[in-house]
């Protein structure tokens, strides 16, 4: 193949012809690289200048350069001159060049490119590679290209020299060097063997040939090493700190390959320091390449001695990278730490290990799984299977994993994150699945009797083991990570699905027999029982009937019944209720057996409850503690069951209603009984509604339910004045819920027949609800009489409770159940309580504006009026203007959309400001004139032509004397008038003079812009868009002059969704854009420059390459270096933490399916 003519110009076969240049041949990839290289070598032997010129143009064209090096340039010009000439013909604006262009064609080209270089060096290693012409020319050219300011040249040279010319070329050179080394060793052994022969048998000619061969191999070895040194010092040393992260990543990736392949030459401190320094790189991509390069080294145990000094020096940095902000980097850092642990446990301190341990609780699953692998290696590394099996045989256990489970429990307890068992199990699931699925061993540890000489599980350890066991059962049955890890449930593969089915059958068969025994042993411990009762949720209930295990079902039902009779804790009772609900599913044949047991239990509890209520009501004030306990205990059980089961046939509402009425009339009902009675009555009403909506109700059924709802709403309304706060809060929440359920939306969706059940709260009830919110939500912490020693979690719990109260009332406003003006009392607290309720108030404001823009604007102005007229308000109130500014921001940037609402707001504000005359005379300002200063915050939201209309409306209220006033007391009028004139048509500004000082305000009027033509019209308002704004202005002004302020109350809303708008802190801080101080980082490059512990005596510090383009330097300076992430712990159920981490109920999910009863 000879693709170039003698003058160096590419041959052309015409359009659509065969590829003729080396670049085209490699790009098309139609020919095998072996034949391409053989053809090129043949042409090189015939005319090395022409062949080498083709190779040079190949590198130039790979950079995307359109220029061509001609033969006269190659022979008469230096490399620097050739590169300068090519640079002049290079167009770098596109940013794309063959080695980085997307698409399958160019992906194939990159592969062909590397293969070509690799085959070329392999084929040349025994011949022309040593001619002192080919390699010298190529290396010189690539070194020059690597220093070019053209990024494509630099990248191509680096890719060629580091991947192809370093990994492929240099890897090929390494292979050549290794082969030479092997040949040298063989030759030396042959020479020694021949020389040690007796003089008579020694062949002198063979000795001379072996000496000659050894000398030749040594010369070749020296030449290869010189080539590698030229590439390393000429290209790598400069480019490993290139401004382009991709080039830096290539360098680090390939130096790792050299170290692994030729460890004798490259795996030493002189080369390892570059990887260590680059661990501090700003780009996660480069840091990732460093870690992967090191992983390849630490995988080989034989290399550990050479890595000992590096490990000691950079271990802290690697451990810190487990918290890298790039999750991929953090995962690889943990894996590298695991490899270091496998190689030498002494290399990591206890503190290093603890830094990785807590990552098993990370919300990011890959990080947690990698940390779980580390924990598995560390926790179970000293496991002695033989000793464990002997111990298991002595104890009669079926599994030898007893001690391993004990160690896991101890770790769980010592981690002090006891309520995150599901996340610990998920982290260990891939590495320790066999252990976590050993439910037989777990059960044996829990059920076995203590043996003398063996330490038994403590109460805390038993609770932790039960919690871990339940989490492993859930993980096996559901086959997906817990909530908070992962983006959602993924589709299982056939193999995963089969494993899930097998695991579910295995756990069902085991716990069907073991669960009754566990409940029998721990039935007195509420925490353990509540956890154990979650296990039936994951059963394959068909096993009961298919395996003829009804006797075990009877044993389970018996134990659940005993638990219900023994406990009154809400968690336990709800767990029992949910278990009954699962076992009563109609799809299983065991439903009848369970339903009978459930009915018998409810009959007994209801009978005791009815008698206890009678006794309590008869004794009234003389009731003792036993009477109260009997009513409360039975009522708690019934309430828990009524949540998940339809108990309407037991008519619990009647007894609960009697208790509530007696408490209201006598005023002595214990608060817990009142709270439970309210909740039970609420469930009863909802179940009755479900029955009616699912069938065809009669008129009598509707009348009966309406009577029940009406009476219960009246009781709840009366309970709002109860002395006990829990009772009031419960009554308030139930009122809000029932008003939502029985609102005008009940008849939507073709349910017009339920019109009789719709309840609209009267003004009295609305006022009482609003008063409750103001008295119980908008309060300061100091008002709660909390002691200094009170747990912070209790304060957060109280805050969440107040947020739920406010959210419940806000829903009523949004759905037009409570009149929108009631929101004014909420909106006025937006600034003061922004941290606590800002998201709820803002979302309420947004949804009400979507419902009715005009009425919402009137509500906003009303809230500002309330703040101004508050008795504690002064004219210098610091928050009212800021509150108005925040309100103005909520109108957004679309002035056309909010035009009518903003105009109405100004109209009401002006009328309020001049509503009352000053009793001292007309020369004094009206009492509410200060409100105009607040109103000026909304002037910027007016369109230019509307400002003129509003100004005209303002002048209607102004007398001639007011226009001439310039004293300080008239400042609000002056500032508001000027805010309307700013940006409007030409008009005069008012100046201010006060006392001896003179203040002038002369703002130039901007010339009116050309009228904007519009064709849009807004119906139903006083402001409409016609062909030009001129007609709009006249229509608006006319409507205002008529004083038309009639507004219609909005009708039923179209089910808006109320969602929380809590602003999350942006993890990308501004400080991230600054460069770090490398001098302060141990193990950094500058640290090594001053402490040559890891450098050779003749090593020189590497400084920033002077060939970086100015643009590249700016990009480099702006890159982030903050590389640590915050480990987000998943939500906790800990009693100490649940208040802080409990999700708000101010959620869109609460506004959907209001008729659907939520079981738990």
Automatic annotation (TrEMBL):
Residues 1004-1016 have a biased composition (Basic residues). GO terms for biological process: cell division; chromosome segregation; sister chromatid cohesion. It comes from the Eukaryota. SUPFAM superfamilies: ARM repeat (SSF48371). Its main location: nucleus. It is found in: Nucleus; Chromosome; Chromosome, Centromere. Residues 236-321 form the SCD domain. Residues 991-1003 have a biased composition (Low complexity). Keywords: Cell cycle, Cell division, Chromosome, Chromosome partition, Coiled coil, Nucleus. Residues 1074-1087 have a biased composition (Basic and acidic residues). GO terms for molecular function: chromatin binding. One of its GO terms (cellular component) is cohesin complex. Residues 984-1031, 1068-1087 are annotated as: Disordered. Signal peptide: none annotated. Residues 200-230 form a coiled coil. Part of the cohesin complex which is composed of a heterodimer between a SMC1 protein (SMC1A or SMC1B) and SMC3, which are attached via their hinge domain, and RAD21 which link them at their heads, and one STAG protein. Component of cohesin complex, a complex required for the cohesion of sister chromatids after DNA replication. The cohesin complex apparently forms a large proteinaceous ring within which sister chromatids can be trapped. At anaphase, the complex is cleaved and dissociates from chromatin, allowing sister chromatids to segregate. Belongs to the SCC3 family. This is Cohesin subunit SA. It comes from Oncorhynchus kisutch. The gene is STAG1.
């Amino acid at each position: 193949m000879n693709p170039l003519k003698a003058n160096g110009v590419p041959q052309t076969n015409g359009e659509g012809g065969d590829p003729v240049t080396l670049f085209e041949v490699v790009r098309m990839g139609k020919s095998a690289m072996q034949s391409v290289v053989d053809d090129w070598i043949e042409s090189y032997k015939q005319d090395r200048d022409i062949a080498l010129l083709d190779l040079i143009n190949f590198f130039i064209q790979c950079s995307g350069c359109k220029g061509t090096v001609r033969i006269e340039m190659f022979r008469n010009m230096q490399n620097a001159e050739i590169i300068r000439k090519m640079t002049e013909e290079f167009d770098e604006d596109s940013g794309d060049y063959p080695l980085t262009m997307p698409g399958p064609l160019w992906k194939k080209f990159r592969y062909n490119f590397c293969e070509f270089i690799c085959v070329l060096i392999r084929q040349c290693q025994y011949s022309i590679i040593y001619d002192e012409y080919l390699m010298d020319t190529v290396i010189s050219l690539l070194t020059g290209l690597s220093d070019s300011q053209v990024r494509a040249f630099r990248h191509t040279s680096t890719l060629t020299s580091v991947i192809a010319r370093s990994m492929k070329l240099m890897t090929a050179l390494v292979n050549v060097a290794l082969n030479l080394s092997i040949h040298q060793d063989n030759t030396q052994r042959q020479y020694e063997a021949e020389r040690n022969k007796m003089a008579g048998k020694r062949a002198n000619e063979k000795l001379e040939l072996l000496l000659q061969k050894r000398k030749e191999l040594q010369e070749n070895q020296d030449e290869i090493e010189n080539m590698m040194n030229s590439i390393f010092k000429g290209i790598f040393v400069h480019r490993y700190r290139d401004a382009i992260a991709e080039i830096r990543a290539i360098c680090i990736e390939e130096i790792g390959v050299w170290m692994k392949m030729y460890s004798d030459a490259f795996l030493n401190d002189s080369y390892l320091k570059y990887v260590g320094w680059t661990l501090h790189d700003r780009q996660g991509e480069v840091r990732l390449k460093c870690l992967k390069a090191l992983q390849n080294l630490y995988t080989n145990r034989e290399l550990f001695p050479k890595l000992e000094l590096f490990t000691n020096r950079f271990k802290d940095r690697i451990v810190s990278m487990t918290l890298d902000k790039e999750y991929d980097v953090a995962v690889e850092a943990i894996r590298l730490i695991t490899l270091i642990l496998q190689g030498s446990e002494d290399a990591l301190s206890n503190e290093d290990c603890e830094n990785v341990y807590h990552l098993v609780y990370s919300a990011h699953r890959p990080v947690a799984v990698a940390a779980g692998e580390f924990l598995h290696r560390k926790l179970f590394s000293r496991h002695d299977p033989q000793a464990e099996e002997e111990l298991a045989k002595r104890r009669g256990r079926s599994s030898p994993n007893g001690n391993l489970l004990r160690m896991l429990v101890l770790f769980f307890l010592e981690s002090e994150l006891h309520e995150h068992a599901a996340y610990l199990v998920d982290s260990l699931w891939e590495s320790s699945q066999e252990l976590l699925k050993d439910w037989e061993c777990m059960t044996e540890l829990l059920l076995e009797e203590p043996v003398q000489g063996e330490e038994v599980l403590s109460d805390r350890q038993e609770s932790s083991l039960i919690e871990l066991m339940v989490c492993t059962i859930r993980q096996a049955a559901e086959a997906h990570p817990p909530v908070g890890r992962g983006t959602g449930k993924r589709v299982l593969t056939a193999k995963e699905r089969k494993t899930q089915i097998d695991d579910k059958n295995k756990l069902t068969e085991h716990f069907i027999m073991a669960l009754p025994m566990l409940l029998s042993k721990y039935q007195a411990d509420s925490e353990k029982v509540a956890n154990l009762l979650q296990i039936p949720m994951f059963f394959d209930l068909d096993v009961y009937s298919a395996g003829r295990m009804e006797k075990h079902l009877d044993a389970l039902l018996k134990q659940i019944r005993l638990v219900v009779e023994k406990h009154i804790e809400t968690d336990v009772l709800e767990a029992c209720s949910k278990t009954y609900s699962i076992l009563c599913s109609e799809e299983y044949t065991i439903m009848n057996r369970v339903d009978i047991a459930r009915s018998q239990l409810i009959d007994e509890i209801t009978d005791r409850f009815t008698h206890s209520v009678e006794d309590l009501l008869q004794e009234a004030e003389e009731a003792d503690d036993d009477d109260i306990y009997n009513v409360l205990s039975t009522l708690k059980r019934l309430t828990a069951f009524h949540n998940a089961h339809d108990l309407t046939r037991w008519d619990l509402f009647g007894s609960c209603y009697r208790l509530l009425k007696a408490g209201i009339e006598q005023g002595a009902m214990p608060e817990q009984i009142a709270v439970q009675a309210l909740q039970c009555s609420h469930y009863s009403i909802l179940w009755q509604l479900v029955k009616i909506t699912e069938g065809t109700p009669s008129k009598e059924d509707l009348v009966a339910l309406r009577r029940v709802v009406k009476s219960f709403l009246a009781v709840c309304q009366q309970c709002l004045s109860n002395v006990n706060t829990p009772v009031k809060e419960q009554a308030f929440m139930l009122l809000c819920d029932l008003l939502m359920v029985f609102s005008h939306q009940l008849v939507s969706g073709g349910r017009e027949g339920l019109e009789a059940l719709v309840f609209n709260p009267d003004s009295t009830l609305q006022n009482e609800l609003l008063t409750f919110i103001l008295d119980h939500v908008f309060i300061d912490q100091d008002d709660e009489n909390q002691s200094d020693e009170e747990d912070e979690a209790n304060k957060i719990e109280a805050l969440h409770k107040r947020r739920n109260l406010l959210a419940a009332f806000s829903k009523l406003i949004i759905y037009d159940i409570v009149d929108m003006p009631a929101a004014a009392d909420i909106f006025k607290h937006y600034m003061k309580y922004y941290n606590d309720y800002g998201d709820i108030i803002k979302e309420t404001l947004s949804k009400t504006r979507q419902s009715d823009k005009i009425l919402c604007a009137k509500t906003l102005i009303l809230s500002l009026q309330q703040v101004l007229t508050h008795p504690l308000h002064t004219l210098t109130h610091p928050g009212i203007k800021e509150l108005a500014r925040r309100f103005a921001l909520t109108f957004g940037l679309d002035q056309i959309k909010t035009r009518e609402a903003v105009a109405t707001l100004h109209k009401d504000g002006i009328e309020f400001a001049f509503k009352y005359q000053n009793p001292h005379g007309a020369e004094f300002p009206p009492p509410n004139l200060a409100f105009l200063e607040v109103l000026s915050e909304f002037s910027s939201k007016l369109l230019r032509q509307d400002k003129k209309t509003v100004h005209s409306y303002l002048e209607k209220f102004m007398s001639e004397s007011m226009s001439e006033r310039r004293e300080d007391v008239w400042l609000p009028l002056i500032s508001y008038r000027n805010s309307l004139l700013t940006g409007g048509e030409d008009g005069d500004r008012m100046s201010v003079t006060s006392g001896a000082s003179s203040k002038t305000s002369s703002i130039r009027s901007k010339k009116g812009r050309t009228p904007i033509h519009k064709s849009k019209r807004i119906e139903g308002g006083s402001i409409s868009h016609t062909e030009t704004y001129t007609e709009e202005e006249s229509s608006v002004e006319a409507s205002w002059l008529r004083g038309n302020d009639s507004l219609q109350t909005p009708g039923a809303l179209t089910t808006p969704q109320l969602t929380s708008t809590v602003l999350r802190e942006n993890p990308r801080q501004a400080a991230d854009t600054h460069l770090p101080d490398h001098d302060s980082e141990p193990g950094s490059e500058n640290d090594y420059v001053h402490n040559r512990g890891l450098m050779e005596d003749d090593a020189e510090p590497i400084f920033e390459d002077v060939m970086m383009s100015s643009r590249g330097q700016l990009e480099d300076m702006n890159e982030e270096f903050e590389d640590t992430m915050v480990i987000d712990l998943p939500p906790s159920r800990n009693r100490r933490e649940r208040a802080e981490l409990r999700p708000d109920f101010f959620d869109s999910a609460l506004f959907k399916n209001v008729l659907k009863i939520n079981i738990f």
